[in-house]
Design brief:
Elements (H helix, E strand, L loop, with lengths): L3 H20 L10 H7 L22 H13 L3 H27 L1 H13 L1 H7 L5 H24 L4 H21 L5 H16 L4 H28 L6 H9 L8 H14 L3 H19 L20 H16 L10 H27 L5 H4 L3 H15 L9 H19 L8 E5 L2 H9 L3 E5 L13 E5 L1 H4 L2 H10 L3 E9 L3 H4 L9 E8 L10 H16 L5
Parallel strand pairs: 1-2, 1-3
Antiparallel strand pairs: 3-5, 4-5
Helix pairs in contact: 1-4, 1-5, 1-17, 2-19, 3-4, 4-5, 4-6, 4-7, 5-13, 5-15, 7-8, 7-9, 7-10, 8-10, 9-10, 9-14, 13-15, 13-17, 14-15, 18-19
Length: 555
């Protein structure tokens, strides 16, 4: 058995490993995803633009973009400012997993569940992004933990002053913050309400118990609604929540696409998980099991484990509601890998529970007849050893994703050179990014004046300074871009083209991986250069031919 004094040391070891996996070489994970660029770019917009990327409300509520904006204000622009909120949220989720599962299923389950969430590539990967999912998991789990404590208390008696505020009010507040992080953040409320109903029915609550638990649920939902409602009302100036729902509807595949989406999500999980990490998690579970079955010293069997039947615990119903609900709901949508993260959090609860029951069964099978110190000495040492193994074998979670940022650097050099050729300072240029928020962020971070666009109307006006257009895979897929390019394409001349291979993390967002795609940089020709035979245009072409020899990718 894992000795009580070792449990907290093992938890600390898991926290250290989780911190290392999330923070190590964080600079290799700059902005790359389309949504990351949207969320991280508040800093580059002023009051006239609403301090936000255009149409940001279609992609996420304001909480994470606002937090990232504040980290920019304190730390300055850069990769750390973009990632720090999720790095901290991802790390803080680790002890929450231990706390929740420890209360429901005991110490062995808690340590097994915590090791999975600390080491698995998926949560490590999304903690190293500027996406909403890691922070969503933190707020959801914190809300569920507080709701479990508060409603369990409500079953026994009416809460007192501070208990109303910190447990029930806190559960509602954190559920509201989950909702302000991601539009499906209301799921924490769905988990708690459905679990409480199942809990009450199976335990045959008395009328007084239903009354107290019902009031507790009303407080949680009421506080969450009060947190969410001001933002929902603010959407009226952008077409209301119906505009957001309409945008999300295009990702809904329904029951007809459920099976295919489920299979693709299984492929996502396989592609974004390294076998070395899985092996380490399994071996940690084995070490914990052997520590129960073959204890090195006489230790109480219960280790403060719950004594009431599992179905009498609200948290067990929350685990079931969370895991089963998301298992059904996730494949109803386009199989974006990020959708799996909250479900994997629920799977960590189930994994810990399974390991705990396996350990108990194995102990009963051996009948405790194993000799104490000679059978399985120091199980906690084995757990730490396998945690170290997880660090060594981590894979996709630490993938180097700097290629797009490097391409942005090449663009800065190319545009600066052309600006100097016209007698201007290298930074006195204007760039427009067509549907590429990630490139918008990196070019803005380099000190250039950049505008995100979804049209080519700017090409009809004389440029006040050397003006460039940046296109990528999103422009290639846009029917509007192809239509407008037929009309305005002659006004541009290609300055450079770079081959870009999106990381595995990006590739898995498409049903068919894109492979290598071109990133192109075009110069908007001044009106007098629209005639290809003009002498100044010949000089420009000579400059571009010279630059093609300097470009770091195929032109």
């Amino acid at each position: 058995m894992i000795h009580p004094k070792h449990e907290k040391w093992l938890l600390l070891a898991m926290l250290v490993v989780a911190a290392w996996l999330r923070f190590a070489s964080y600079w290799q994970s700059p902005i790359e995803h389309f949504d990351e660029g949207v969320y991280a770019s508040n800093y580059w917009f002023d009051a006239s633009e609403g301090f936000r990327y255009p149409d940001r409300h279609l992609y996420a509520p304001p909480l994470l973009p606002t937090v990232i904006e504040w980290t920019h204000l304190f730390l300055g622009p850069g990769t750390l400012a973009c990632l720090l909120p999720n790095l901290l949220a991802g790390l803080a989720t680790v002890p929450l997993v231990w706390l929740f599962v420890r209360r429901m299923m005991g110490p062995i389950a808690a340590l097994a569940a915590t090791s999975m969430w600390a080491c698995l590539d998926y949560p490590v990967l999304y903690s190293r992004t500027a996406l909403t999912d890691s922070m969503l998991c933190f707020w959801m789990l914190l809300s569920v933990v507080l709701a479990e404590r508060g409603l369990s208390l409500c079953r026994q008696r009416w809460p007192r002053g501070a208990e109303w505020i910190f447990l029930l009010g806190g559960a509602g507040l954190t559920a509201g913050l989950a909702w302000l992080t991601k539009y499906n953040g209301w799921l924490s409320l769905a988990v708690t309400v459905s679990a409480a109903i199942a809990w009450g029915v199976t335990q045959r609550f008395a009328i007084a118990e239903w009354r107290r638990v019902g009031v507790g649920l009303l407080i949680i939902c009421g506080v969450a609604g009060a947190v969410w409602t001001p933002y929902m009302l603010s959407l009226e100036e952008y077409g209301g929540y119906s505009a957001v729902a309409g945008n999300h509807r295009q990702y809904f595949v329904g029951l007809s696409g459920w099976g295919a989406s489920l299979l693709h999500q299984a492929g996502n999980l396989y592609a974004l998980t390294s076998w070395g990490t899985v092996l380490s998690i399994v071996m940690i579970a084995w070490a914990l099991t052997m520590g129960v079955a073959c204890p090195p010293a006489k230790v109480a069997d219960d280790l403060n484990s719950p004594t009431e039947p599992p179905l009498a615990r609200l948290g067990v119903w929350q685990m079931a509601s969370w895991s089963l609900g998301l298992f059904v709901a996730i494949p109803l949508y386009h199989p974006y890998p990020r959708l799996l993260l909250p479900w994997l959090l629920a799977c960590s609860f189930l994994w810990g529970t399974a390991v705990s029951y396996l350990a108990i069964a194995f102990r009963r099978w051996t009948k405790g007849d194993w000799k104490e110190t000679k059978t399985w000495p120091w199980p906690w040492v084995s757990v730490v050893s396998f945690l170290i193994l997880a660090v060594i074998h981590v894979g996709i979670g630490l993938e180097d994703r700097r290629e797009l940022k490097e391409i942005a650097g090449f663009m800065v050099g190319s545009t600066g050179y052309l600006a100097e050729e016209t007698g201007r300072p290298e930074e006195e240029v204007i760039l427009y990014t067509y549907g590429e928020p990630a490139l918008f962020y990196h070019l803005s971070d380099a000190g250039r004046l950049v505008g995100p666009i979804g049209h080519l109307d700017f090409a009809t006006q004389p440029p006040p300074a050397p003006t460039f257009l940046v296109t990528g895979p999103h422009a290639e897929r846009s029917p509007l871009f192809r239509e407008q390019w037929k009309e305005h394409g002659s006004r541009f001349v290609k300055v450079g083209e770079w081959d870009y291979t999106p990381s595995e993390f990006i590739q898995r967002n498409s049903l068919e991986p894109a492979g290598t795609v071109p990133i192109r940089l075009y110069l908007l020709k001044p009106p007098e250069l629209h005639d290809l035979e003009g002498p100044r245009n010949s000089q420009l072409n000579q400059t571009l031919e010279f630059m093609s020899g300097r470009a770091p990718a195929g032109n």
